[in-house]
Amino acid sequence: MSGPETPKLMVDVVVPSEEGHVLLIRRASDPYKGYWALPGGFVEVGETLEDAAVREAEEETGVKVEVVRLVGVYSDPDRDPRGHNVSCAYLAHVLEGELSAASDASEVSFVFPRTVELAFDHEKIIADALAGEAPPV
Fold it and tell me: pLDDT, tens digit, for every residue of 123-134?
């Protein structure tokens, strides 16, 4: 028996530095190839949202992160050109590791977000994360 068709579930991870930069990846593929974006991706079946956030951040940036809190849920049906994808965004900090672009990333760096073109609705997610108004996880 199959259920109703529903949006796909994703995570995005905001990792700020003390200097006001944010950990970003440069997308290696479409959509938004060449744009800067938050590390993130699709949640796997059997995985918690928080575990997906940690996994995606490490896969794309080479660093292990710890989730601090939920930033928010982003569900605009038009936020992703691939289809209706809902993202749960998390604020996190680096635990260990060296930056190394991998998976969907061609480059990874701590970047001042207002100086680059951001993919998807990541400008809003970053602003919400840095405003600090969401409840703890």
Answer: 999 999 999 654
Gap between the Cα atoms of 129 and 110, Å rounded: 16
Write down the CATH number for the domain with range 15-131: 3.90.79.10
Sign of the Cα torsion 20, 12, 31, 131 reads negative
Q: Which residue is catalytic, options 50, 66, 107, 123?
A: 107
| Tokens encoding 71 | 């930033």
DSSP string of 39-51, one letter each residue: SEEEPPTT--HHH
pTM over 0.90: yes
- 66 in active site: no
pLDDT at 1: 60
Domain ranges of the chain: 15-131
